[in-house]
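Notebook entry, structure prediction.
Reason for the run: the old model in the group folder had no record of what sequence produced it. Starting over properly, with the input documented here first.
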Amino acid sequence: MRDEKLYRYFTENPGWQRQLELLRKKALAGYADGQISLTDATAEECAAAEGLLGHRFTPPKLRYKISAFESALRVSIFAVEDMQQFWQRLDGESLIPHAAQKQAHRDVVARFFEREAAQLHGNAALAWLDTLAREKRAGFQILASHIETDKEARRWLHEVCCTLDRLERSLRPEELALCSYAVTTDPHALDSDQSAGRLLLHALAHWKQQAFPQSGRDRAALYRQCGLLTDDLSSITVQRGLRLLCPDGSEHPAYRLLRLQGSLCVLTASQLDELKAQSPTGQVYILENQMVFSSLCRWEDIRHPMICTSGQLREASWRLLDLLAASGCSFWYAGDFDPEGLSIADRLWQEYGSRVHMWHMGVEEYRQSQSDHVHLDDSRLTQLSNLRCPTLHPLADALLQHRTAGYQEALVDLYLQDLQQ
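New structure, fully documented this time:
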């Protein structure tokens, strides 16, 4: 509790202001003794010190030992026993040195993780907890600001540890939402945009000794490796003409029939986990636009396989392209002539390098496909500055110059000629 008489004595006299700041600084630094020194002291400051300590001080120098200040307090009307009691009565609470505060915080953090480690967790969870406590990484920053004040952090940590236990014991994959409900009774608690979900990604990366996934594709791959399935039905890809093989190398009979009939085939990411893929011609043509893809599929004399990404590539499309790349296949990509279409082309080039070729995506084709009605604003055009593929730079310059989009629908005849050859 604060001593009002002592508080007024030191705070209502301006002569004590700077001296108290120095005394407090020394105390927080952990110095029980030492000197208080001002080389530009005012007469008011010297008079204040003189009134308590009983020594004469002459401006501009003011210097005395903290032990002398403490002794003067002890015999004063305030009868303060020591500096610890002085700060308690002045502030209404104890003044704890920085080193002691840090140690107290370290003790709280250690107890936080020790409490969870005392639960019956498996090896993956215990190893992760040990890394969190000792190395302050693998998701520690998500918890750091909450450990002392927020019970939510304890819940997040427990839920993620229980999820690791569940995955470590599991013999078959499980949907993320079902796993989340089983552990937390909330199917979305472990989604990647939730605190517990972000913490789970750190825990999974630690378990599999991988870097934290920065992209959606890497995130999906990590989930899959750990036995978690994301929304499989919304992550599909469509192909026509590919040879899809069973693990023993034989062509899957259902997909073989579709290939021979020239029918398109919808595939999910989980279906592709059990397949290998090849192109009969060693090439595959990738189209961003669904309508263009559908139009081309109606022609019976198409010789080369095609894939439709339906805009930005989702997990299933990436999985299929990985399988094809592993078989030595080359890719020919055609997208709309807008920042988004060029961004997809650039991502493919960054991922597969010289295996990727731009399919009628030059400046001349852009001019043929330009729209008089769709103008590109600055917010979209700024995406072009991030392109890394040198082949796309002339096209990006043309878009910046004309500020209009171009569309694949204008080039269907060109695509058809290539696919029939």
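Summary: The chain has a mean pLDDT of 91.
The old model has been moved to the deprecated folder.
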